[in-house]
User: Fold this.
Amino acid sequence: MIIRKAVIPLSHKWLLREGKLWVEKSIITHEQYEEIIKLYPESPRRISQILPILASILIGLSLLTFVASNWDGIPQITRLAILTVTMISFYTSGYTLYKKGHQWLGQGLLSLGVVSFGASMILVGQMFHLVAYDARVFVLWALAGLGLLYLYRKPVFFLLASVLIFSGQIYSFSSFSTISWTLLLLTGIGLGKFAYQDVNPLSGWVLSILLHIQAVLLIISRDIAWSWVAFVPLGLYAIGMFLRRKPIAQGFLVLPTIFSFFFSMLMVFIHEHVYDSAEFITSPFAYFIGFIAVLLVVLWQGHGNKGKWLPLILFLPFFFLTHGDVAYLISMFVFSAILIFYGDHQYDAVTARIGVFLFMLSSFIGYIQLAWDFLDKSFFFLIGGLLLFSIHWILKKRRLWMTKGEDKDK
Assistant:
């Protein structure tokens, strides 16, 4: 797993100030100074972009709250008229403002149009006592959000459609103990197509989170053995390997690794309780067929970059082993140690620091699991403190060693 360093954008004000000094010192010409300024224009303030959206949401909520509080005393035809006029007003004003250049305010009002569309469907259903047997309302609601997404291709509408799909699946799972296959299809095709073409990695992260959650809900709703939850991140990681040249791949490579690390932490504590449980342990034959098939795909796609093979340590199904808790703990230590080594070797401070953090977390988890039951609590905290001091000393020595190594290179 490679964690890329963040690129910090240049401050426009800093560039204006320093650029004048460069011109005065004849480092660059005035013409070059102007060309550099053009390359790094002043970015708009994000708070000024968000405020119109928040304002439009608050206004919309005030209208909806007022209507809902007086709903019972309003005739049905008037209710329909209010809902229709409110929805059309949001869409019309949002479209008009967006075309006039007020993009953020326009996006906020268009989003409220989608919100009012869904709220209108729910309220109309209550008016005529319509009973829902599935998440069909959320499917239509999500389609409205996806329609805006593909009309304007803005991240705001991607997040809106994601929230609607997520809400629909939670509603379907909590009300009917199942998930909506249509919403799952809209996630993969509707959101997936946009995220595949998007240059912003955020869409890949959101899509990966949605797929993780829906896959877990699917396993639970179908009464499938819970151990298949461990297969979900491996499958999504394999998809990320196919998408590795796209910005979307970041969410599909990093998030499954995080998911598997926390799954390993959980298994350290609960393995002895679920090892003999039929609800948790699946058929080894079926699991290993799927596991090996996906594993071969990951190995094939990552042949040019061995660093992509590192998370496979966390994907291994140790829950089949008698002492799976120990195996999971060892895998966490090995993953963290290799991450530190890889970060140091590649001079990637971010990756190395994450490895250090995960190594400390693994030490803490292992210490709690092994010492809590049989040590006196005073000794438990004493040894824990000494362990932290030891880790601090090791990290300090490592930092000094790394600094000496850098000095020698110079």
